[in-house]
Amino acid sequence: MMREAVAESCLLVAEVTGATQLADKLGAAEADRAVERAIARAERSVQAYQGSRVPGAPGRLAAHFPRSDGAALAANDMIKRISQLPPVSGITLSARIVLHSGRAKQGGGVDEESVELALSLLPFASPGQILLSSDAVSKLSEGMRANINSATQLSVSTGGFQMPLVELQPGNLLMPQSHGPLTVPPHEPTIMPSSRPVPARQAPAAEQTRSRLLLRYHGASLLVSEFKPVLLAGREEANDVVITDRRASRQHARIEWRKGRFMLIDSSTNGTYLVDAQGAEVLLKHGECELPTHGRIGCGYSPLEAGCEPMVFDIGERNSGQ
């Protein structure tokens, strides 16, 4: 029998902390609901950095990533998202996270032994801490390794052998400008026809790289770039942008960075409206389009509607030679 082909992958396993104290105070049902909210936020981090959820980790989250840098960025994002949840009856939830090298099966999924090993390392992490095995560290880019806290080095016994662990310092991770993009696999667009389509942008004479998108909504500003390639918008609190209008879906739309292009993708019931700087409007329904340099986005409503508050975006460009 031929063995199934496998490829290296980076595993991320996470466990929500604080649930035991919450169960003691409010009961198991309320604790379970709070953990579910935290796990939903963690899943958004997995999605944002092109990870895939791994089944078979009840009460925990396990995911695999094609690149270790993506897993590290997702872990950092996870800590931030869960920390932003409001305390429940005075108890603040957090997460402990471990990254370890695994073997992703070509047909989908991950080697079960790798998952079990990664899960066995979770008890060694403190709440709010990200630990990495030496295998995971070896696959990080040089720039990402700069975020390793050299003061925290552990050697733990698991599975009958010693496993060295180091800590990734959560926060604003340092990334080199030369770091390769975390690309999203392209797929065929399905753009809904419109009587007023967004005009196609004319390519400049000199080759350009559209390096980052700045989005503003309700006084907050967020960036989309090769280092944060997906932004999620909708009514659900786990989104990067939480839309307050009731016409928006829970998981309404997303913006993706794809090798210098910024794509708007709709996954809603009422559609996503895009208005460019000239006032031309297009309505997307389960389709996608490339964003112009400047514009406004409405989730379930037109940005031209009186009294509404759309998302406003600007895309910065720099010459590829700079």
Q: What's the average pLDDT?
A: 79
Number of strands: 18
How large is the count of helical segments? 6
Which structural class best describes the helix and strand composition? alpha+beta
How big a fraction of the residues is strand?
Answer: 35-45%
Label the overall shape.
Answer: globular
Q: How far apart lie the N and C ends?
A: 53 Å
Main sheet characteristics = 7 strands, mixed
Residues in helix, %: 10-25%
Radius of gyration, whole Å: 21 Å
Q: In sequence order, what are the helices and strands, one letter per element?
A: EHHEEHEHEHHEEEEEEEEEEEEE
Q: Which regions contain 5 or more consecutive residues with pLDDT less than 50? A: 1-6, 176-208, 318-322
Strand order of the largest sheet: 2-3-1-4-5-7-6
Describe the structure.
The chain is an alpha+beta fold and 322 residues long. It has a seven-stranded mixed beta sheet, with helices on both faces. A six-stranded antiparallel beta sheet has the order 9-8-18-17-14-15, with no helix packed on it. A five-stranded mixed beta sheet has the order 11-10-12-13-16, with helices on one face. Strand 2 and strand 3 form a beta hairpin. Helix 1 packs antiparallel against helix 2 and helix 2 crosses helix 3. The longest helix is centred in the first third of the chain and has 21 residues. It is globular and about 65 Å long.
